[in-house]
Write a structure and sequence with these properties.
By secondary structure, the protein is an alpha/beta fold. The protein has helices at 2-5, 24-31, 45-49, 53-70, 77-85, 101-111, 127-132, 143-153, 179-192; strands spanning 8-11, 89-94, 117-120, 137-140, 157-160, 173-176. It has a six-stranded parallel beta sheet with strand order 3-2-1-4-5-6, with helices on both faces. Helix 4 (53-70) packs parallel to helix 6. The protein is globular. Its EC number is 3.1.3.-. Belongs to the 5'(3')-deoxyribonucleotidase family. Keywords: Hydrolase. GO terms for molecular function: hydrolase activity.
Length: 201
């Protein structure tokens, strides 16, 4: 199975490996709101919640470490990623800033999620990092990132469905609802070596 083991998966962290609801309790507490994930229909929290950008940015800078330290994994992430680690190279590429590396590394250890590479690039433009690492498939929750990576690198991107990423997508961006569906699509893609509709469990 040498060919399978050589596959290199680029994987976003927040809202992809971590549950996209992770920051909702923090938002509700800080801004005296009572929202759910369904209320966040835009990736830009300031725009989605009608909170001034400077206020939202200051809050996020202050709260970011606590959010990352306490984020629960997304449904199925631990199980599927542990299974994949035996078969594929797992390269986690995140827009988190580099000073958050220790918190990020500790979270992965606590969740017992192994990886071959962990990179915090401090930017949402992940094309260069994905290209440099020779990624075969990318896993993402941010719509713009998914489209950019798919179109510029000509690789499939698995986009995890959230209320904030519902804009249209090109053919090589594949929507899934959870890690179990991502796993089903991956194995179909490897078997057929082409992008096809996901077979939902």
């Amino acid at each position: 199975m040498k060919q399978v083991k050589e596959k290199r998966f680029g994987i976003d962290i927040d809202g992809t490996v971590t549950c996209p609801t992770s920051l909702v309790p923090f938002i509700n507490d800080a801004f005296s709101l009572n929202i759910t994930l369904q209320d966040i229909t835009k990736y830009d929290l300031s725009e989605a919640l009608n909170i001034p950008l400077d206020q939202m940015r200051a809050w996020f800078d202050e709260t970011e470490p606590a959010i990352y330290a306490s984020s629960p994994p997304a449904d199925g992430a631990e199980y599927i990623l542990s299974k994949w680690q035996q078969q594929f190279h797992l390269l986690f590429i995140s827009a988190r800033r580099k000073h958050l590396f220790e918190i990020t590394e500790t979270w992965f250890k606590e969740q017992k999620i192994l990886y071959d590479h962990l990179e915090l690039i401090g930017s949402h433009n992940k094309v260069a990092a994905a290209k440099r690492n020779g990624v075969d498939i990318f896993f993402e929750d941010k719509h713009d990132n998914a489209v950019m990576i798919a179109e510029e690198l000509h690789i499939p991107v698995v986009l995890f469905n959230t209320p904030y990423n519902q804009d249209s997508i090109p053919d090589n961006v594949i929507r899934v609802d959870n890690w179990y569906e991502a796993d089903a699509w991956v194995h179909q893609w490897i078997k057929t070596n082409e992008i096809g509709p996901i077979t939902r469990p």
